[in-house]
Structures are given as C-alpha cells and as structure tokens.
Amino acid sequence: RSPTDRLPLVGAAPARALARVDAPARLVHRYGTEAPVVAGLGGEPVVEGRPETVGELRFAVLAEGARSVADLLDRRTRIGLVTAERAAATGLAEAVLAHRG
C-alpha cells in the first residue's frame, strides 16, 4: 500500500463543495477548490484560441513547482505539443518562470 493513498489531492473536494466554487467551470474541473486562486493569477489566454490562462502558468510555478518551459508547456498545459502554439507561448512561459510566477 502507498503511504499517500489516503491523502487528498490539493483542491480535491466533494462535488457539492465544488459546485459552490466561484470560478470558471473549466478551472474548477481542473484545479478544484484552488480554481479561484488560479483565476486570480490572470485570466488572459496563453495562446489565442486556446483555453489555458496565464494564471495557470503562474500557479504551476508558484504552487506546483514547475521549473522549465517544457514543464509548463508540455506537461502542465500540453500547449507545447503543437509546434506553432509552443512558439507562440514560449516567451510568456519564460517570463513567468523568470518572475517565479
């Protein structure tokens, strides 16, 4: 058995509690009770036409320990899987990392 099998994920909550979270549904689905924090970190899109926001990049750095552009764009958001979108988002990802959020 895993020693962490009973530890809830950050932001995890029962559906009733999540229904009361004051944040966009997409963020609540992904971040749970942490969604208002993510929304407060910036709602501008990382890449025009995609749903991911600057707040999500900032949250990944500040709260989740993201330390590289690849971590932000490939693993956390999947933006980096499309070459043109990676190119469009790299500068912003570098700036978020440089400012540590």
UniProtKB/TrEMBL annotation:
It comes from the Bacteria. Residues 3-89 form the Alpha-glycerophosphate oxidase C-terminal domain. InterPro entries: DAO_C, DAO_C_sf. This is Glycerol-3-phosphate dehydrogenase. It comes from Modestobacter versicolor.
